[in-house]
Amino acid sequence: MRPDYFSNNSESLCIEDLALTKICEEIPTPFYIYSQASIEAAATSYLKNASDSDLICYSVKANSNINLLKILAQLGMGFDVVSVGELKRALKAGATADKIVFSGVGKSKADLTFAAEQEIYSINIESHHEIELLKDLPNKPRISLRINPDMAANTHPYIETGKSDCKFGISELEALEIAKTYSTEEINLVGISAHIGSQITDANLFIELAEKLKALAAQLKDLGHKIDHLDVGGGLAIDYQLEQQYDPAQLVKDLKSSITEYDLLMEPGRSIVAQSGAVITSVITEKTNGQRDFLVVDVGMNDLMRPALYSARHSIETVKFNDVEVKEYEVVGPVCETADSFGVGHSLNAKAGDQLIIYSTGAYGSSMGSNYNSRPKPAEILVSKDKFKVIRKAESFEDLIRLEEV
Ligand code: LLP
């Protein structure tokens, strides 16, 4: 039985058990599986209370498969990118440049020049140095100052980005200095942005952030800059325990009541795709060492590194019910690291050959995957209505060595 959250309602993974069983019979494991209906439901929830001039920019780093970007572009979403590679992906997916924002703490002159040439909605500036690099470009790109608001997102330390000792953004003081130093002839300063972290469970923090951005925007306007939008970043959490849902529509509504004089821009990633994706893996073997029972599966930390990197806990179930004894297992991958573990205490009735589903892996799963241990990356499958298609083939050994001069 799937958890309630997974059942076939509009905001769940929306893949019928039968369809899942059929896909599992046809596609060799491991693979990622995504639900188009679920992605659309999450995106629509953000778009519902946004006006035509607001921009909801999906954060491409969460999952950059072009087929998923296409779905979002068709719904009218914009894109938040952090590299030229992501920018090119968004354009290839059919995004219009005027719906793309470019953030990132280390943008080179080549990156900035490329983004400026595309005439994107905004380059989010993260240092004084970037202003100097941009100043000499022939066209004046629209820029926003990404501030570091010195706010805690109360999340895992690796994904806190808005405290004053984090590398991201510039202080409000420095933003004011820049606004004073450069005239409107020199820079086209049109926005203020921030991103305080990821997996934020307290929606009030977004409102607190909006208030800060508003106060700074008023000062920048007094200095003559024509601020037209405020970008509160991304970060809304999802529930990895699959028990509750956070509500993007309500968040956008609350932000719109707070930000009335400017267009609203948001950069959600995880909350659009995480619950829309899962990993399907097969049990290679069952073994016991000391007091601990292990299920060794064919997906590893190279394919899904969140547990190893952040001690993240993803719910795991068998794809099909079977009547072997339920035991508490540590589910581990085949990679030669003890960190290659999906956690202890998973209650599962599984045996070698059974398939397991690892939930909530649509975000920061495949996009953070690697070839460590010379493991080819798994296939990615998209389910739309009652059909499914391969949207990224499983890599082959030849793919792995293609760029090596042998
Ligand atoms: N905007 C900026 C500038 C960001 O740095 C990020 C994420 C986002 C938007 C999207 O945040 P989201 O809505 O997805 O929380 N690998 C980590 C998450 C890293 C997030 C990095 N920045 C994980 O698996 O938990």
What features would you describe in this structure?
The protein is of the alpha/beta class. The protein has two domains: 6-34 and 274-401, Lyase, Ornithine Decarboxylase, Chain A, domain 1; 36-269, Alanine racemase (TIM Barrel, Alpha-Beta Barrel). 28% of the residues lie in helices and 21% in strands. The protein has twelve helices and 17 strands. The strands form two sheets. Strands 1, 10, 11, 12, 13, 14, 15, 16 and 17 form a nine-stranded mixed sheet that branches. Strands 2-3-4-5-6-7-8-9 form an eight-stranded parallel beta barrel, surrounded by five helices. The longest helix is centred in the middle third of the chain and has 19 residues, at 204-222. The protein is elongated. The model is unreliable at 1-11 (pLDDT under 50). Ligand LLP is lined by residues 59, 62, 80, 103, 159, 161, 195, 198-199, 233-235, 267-271, 306, 310, 364, 368.
What ions, cofactors and ligands are bound? ligand LLP
Structural class: alpha/beta
Outline the biggest β-sheet.
Answer: 9 strands, mixed
> Quick one: how many beta strands?
17
Averaging pLDDT over every residue, what do you get?
A: 94
Question: What Rg, in angstroms, do the CA atoms define?
Answer: 22 Å
Domains, number: 2
Low-confidence stretches: 1-11
Shape: elongated
The helix tally amounts to: 12
Give the SSE layout.
Blueprint: H1 17-26, E1 31-35, H2 36-47, E2 55-59, H3 66-74, E3 78-81, H4 84-92, E4 100-102, H5 109-118, E5 122-125, H6 128-135, E6 142-146, H7 172-181, E7 188-193, H8 204-222, E8 229-231, H9 248-258, E9 263-266, H10 270-273, E10 277-289, E11 292-297, H11 306-310, E12 316-318, E13 327-332, E14 346-348, E15 355-358, E16 379-384, E17 387-392, H12 397-401
Parallel strand pairs: 1-16, 2-3, 2-9, 3-4, 4-5, 5-6, 6-7, 7-8, 8-9, 11-13
Antiparallel strand pairs: 1-10, 10-11, 10-15, 12-15, 13-14, 16-17
Helix pairs in contact: 2-9, 8-9
The chain binds ligand LLP.
Residues 59, 62, 80, 103, 159, 161, 195, 198-199, 233-235, 267-271, 306, 310, 364, 368 line the site of ligand LLP.
